[in-house]
Amino acid sequence: MASQTIEILVEGGKATPGPPLGPAIGPLGINMMQVVEEINKKTADFGGMKVPVKITADMDTKDFEISIGTPPTTALVLDELGIESGSHEPGTEVAADFSVEQAFKVARMKFDDLLANDYKHATKEVIGTCVSMGINVQGKDGRETQKDIDNGDYDDVFTQ
Known about the structure:
This protein is an alpha+beta fold. It contains seven helices and five strands; from the N terminus they run βααββαβααβαα. Helix 3 packs across helix 4 and helix 5 (119-133) packs antiparallel against helix 6 (142-150).
């Protein structure tokens, strides 16, 4: 069984046979509309976010499997905040303020893809992403909030 795998980012629920999907899967000879419909069905909950999609096609039978990853942490943070982008000058310009609870929510969504062994450290990873995006956490620089988490200031959030 010869198979080929394509990995691509598509907008949740809005995949089309056009670029970038069409040119990537067209040469595989699989039914493009079936692929598009299945991707849209599986990514509908991630509307407006870029979602990693992995398409594995059997070159002999033209069957395919689609697996959906979770959107990048940045996309989940932006979606949670309801904004379109982070700061253009992180460190000097603040784009928004994020709460530890929101960071925890994103950490739960991304947990399997993160390096952390527990939700507390996963939340700190998400907060690190916020720092690079110019997003404050709890009204201050995310690095300070990470120290507060280490000091146990937000332990009640992680026991929910």
